[in-house]
Amino acid sequence: MARQSEPLPDADHAVPVLLTRPREQGESFARKLTRRLGSRVRPVIAPLMSPEYLSPPAPEGPFAAVIFTSAHGVEGAVRLGVELPRLAYCVGRSTAAAATRAGFEARSANGNAEDLVAAVRKQAPNGRLLYIRGVDTSGDVANTLINQGFQTVSLQVYLQKPIPFLRESTDLLCQTVPVVLPLFSPRSALLFRDALPSDARADLHIVAMSEAVAQAAADIPHSALMVARNPDAPGMLDAVESLLAALPSP
Question: What is the reported pLDDT for 74?
């Protein structure tokens, strides 16, 4: 049920956009928001998780290609300090950009886990695949590929440690104001639900990166929930702008 919102407390009536991604990714998206929407938004950096990189033993090769579903996976691969194949299948453009900067020949699926599997199937490499991933991931990429006949080995190189909200975030959520909440993963949605103060009064307008994220966010109290047309940063920006346009004028 929608809540009635008080007028926004700042002079410009900028709508708070609560960014719960790990800090580096949150700050990057905040810059994109500001470039796109200017003073219409007030990004609030509120990370609910922080990456911790692991040092697992690298499996014996050879491998024909690596698979990445996040920039953290790319960073974790670099930190391993071992020789890896140059060809990298990446879930989306931001992950592909990180892989390119790290020296890989990146191919972006421009989508989600299903699109990534389809891209591998379409451009089938001759040899085994090494899926470099986090401990918690959405989409069963490795088993899907194995079931489709691709020899795939998973290697967990990082985990996302939950961290509590900062005071600024808690204070915001306890005000009766509209807040836009972009959620980029099912785990982000679950962590937010667990971290939401019991006395929260914010009028939440959720942007989900995918249907899976929307399902995970379904029981978060909200007035609106929109799924991005494309599961990437431009798609999320478009959805945030659409939600802003639908908000009542202050």
Answer: 97
